[in-house]
Amino acid sequence: MAFGREHHTKETCNASLNAVKDALYVLNGKWKLPLIISMQDGPKRFNEIQKSLGEITPKILSKELKDLELNEFVIRKVYSTTPVTVTYELTEYSGSLDKVINELRSWGMQHRERLVTSRKTEAVLEDIEH
């Protein structure tokens, strides 16, 4: 049932492993993908992003935005207004994650449903046993 398992050689397995490690290195942590999702509806200021994510601290948000900027997923724009206005927006390249985000969303919904169903079944069985 595993994806393409029958075609794996040691070399292709290592290449796959390295590619996944590279992807996880860039998207590591619990905030990178939610941050990208929060900006999909257009440019946002720092405080707007923080509010949309909820429990992220300013220090962590700043670090995550810098990482996303270094990896070409986000552009930081500074406007010479008084006071200075700074916005963050997704790059065109960030769209390369759309399939990944959609698959993770779909899998997450399926997984949550599986756990909820499993817990309901366990609760029913406990009721029957008692």
From TrEMBL:
<dbReference type="InterPro" id="IPR036390">
    <property type="entry name" value="WH_DNA-bd_sf"/>
</dbReference>
<protein>
    <submittedName>
        <fullName>Helix-turn-helix domain-containing protein</fullName>
    </submittedName>
</protein>
<keyword id="KW-0804">Transcription</keyword>
<feature type="domain" description="HTH hxlR-type">
    <location>
        <begin position="13"/>
        <end position="116"/>
    </location>
</feature>
<dbReference type="InterPro" id="IPR002577">
    <property type="entry name" value="HTH_HxlR"/>
</dbReference>
<dbReference type="InterPro" id="IPR036388">
    <property type="entry name" value="WH-like_DNA-bd_sf"/>
</dbReference>
<dbReference type="Pfam" id="PF01638">
    <property type="entry name" value="HxlR"/>
</dbReference>
<dbReference type="GO" id="GO:0003677">
    <property type="term" value="F:DNA binding"/>
</dbReference>
<keyword id="KW-0805">Transcription regulation</keyword>
<keyword id="KW-0238">DNA-binding</keyword>
